[in-house]
Write a structure and sequence with these properties.
Layout lengths: L4 H10 L6 H26 L3 H27 L11 H25 L3 E4 L4 H50 L8 H22 L3 H17 L16 E4 L3 H4 L9 H20 L6 H7 L5 H4 L10
Antiparallel strand pairs: 1-2
Helix pairs in contact: 2-3, 2-5, 3-5, 4-7, 4-9, 5-6, 5-7, 5-10, 6-7, 6-9
Length: 311
């Protein structure tokens, strides 16, 4: 006799004993640190070859999403509302266009103050290579920081606390890059860490943050040819950008993300996302989240146990 889907799904979840939030967080973080290392290896193999970089980017992005989907179902025994397929196209499209626009505005302001120029010719192949690289980077980092750390730590400290914490962690991650500076790490924590966290809080899906992350990075390196977060190892883009002038304007060795203009430009969407999150009731205290555990309120906080959307 065939089981009903609901009965089967309930039995499937009951096979997995409940784990503490801290335990789930530890397992998922360790898993995605491994995924991050593997993704770096795949990018290294692809190098600057445009075709291989596109293939590598697709493999990393799709593979990371599949690993996350399986891990969530095994470790947490729930569905994937944060990867809701009905919002994939719109979220990625809106985020990518917004990311392109935000960085283009930033570089235009830097150029207005005499801090940006180009030299050499145009490399379409370089732009294609960056396209693949940044697609993989955006997906893996957003899965780690927003889907895992933000979503699970939020249950322990509330939305406002996790916004600050993940922003600092995101900035701190970039200190390992060759051209990193403390100011650059703080700047990217404010402009990118807060903005991407606020985008996730507003939508409770990953597609908008992934699109924002990708669009910004691709414009920065793939179109305007500047250093991304102090990482000099990224493939050359469409043009070779040259920054000159005060570090406050250009960002120095860290790149435009350490410019005061990047902070100002990104503050606007961050405030919009936070206002949207508040209006939608997506800003939660720790007490509210604790009370909502195991109830339908979990749908709004990314802890829904019934949703089955996603990869």
């Amino acid at each position: 006799m065939t089981q009903s889907p609901l009965r089967s799904r309930t039995s499937f979840r009951n096979m997995r004993p409940p784990r503490s939030t801290g335990g789930r967080l530890a397992v998922m973080v360790v898993l995605f640190l491994v995924v991050t290392a593997l993704a770096a290896g795949v990018r290294a193999v692809a190098g600057t070859n445009p075709f291989l970089s596109l293939i590598a980017g697709a493999v990393v992005a799709v593979g990371a999403l599949k690993v996350y989907a399986v891990a969530v179902r095994v470790v947490e025994g729930r569905g994937l509302p944060e990867l809701d397929r009905t919002t994939t196209v719109s979220g990625l499209r809106t985020g990518t266009l917004a990311g392109l626009l935000l960085f283009s505005t930033t570089i235009a302001l830097i150029a207005l103050f005499g801090g940006y120029g180009t030299k050499g010719g145009v490399s379409v192949g370089g732009a294609v290579a960056v396209l693949g690289t940044m697609a993989g980077v955006a997906v893996v980092e957003e899965l780690l920081f927003r889907a895992i750390v933000f979503r699970l730590v939020e249950q322990l400290v509330g939305t406002r606390g996790v916004l600050a914490l993940t922003a600092l962690l995101f900035g701190g991650l970039h200190l390992v890059n060759s051209g990193a500076t403390v100011w650059g790490a703080l700047a990217i924590a404010v402009e990118a860490g807060l903005m991407l966290g606020a985008a996730y809080a507003a939508t409770r899906t990953l597609w908008l943050p992934i699109g924002l992350h990708f669009g910004w990075n691709f414009a920065e390196s793939g179109l305007f040819g500047t250093t991304v977060s102090g990482n000099d190892g990224a493939p050359a883009g469409l043009v070779h950008g040259v920054l000159s002038g005060p570090t406050a304007v250009t960002g120095g060795t860290f790149g435009p993300e350490a410019s005061v203009f990047a902070i100002i430009v990104c503050a606007v969407p961050t405030l919009v996302f936070l206002r949207t999150a508040k209006r939608r009731g997506h800003l939660h205290t720790r007490a509210e989240l604790k009370a909502a555990t195991g109830t339908a309120t979990g749908t709004a906080t990314g802890t829904d146990t019934e949703a089955t959307t996603g990869p």
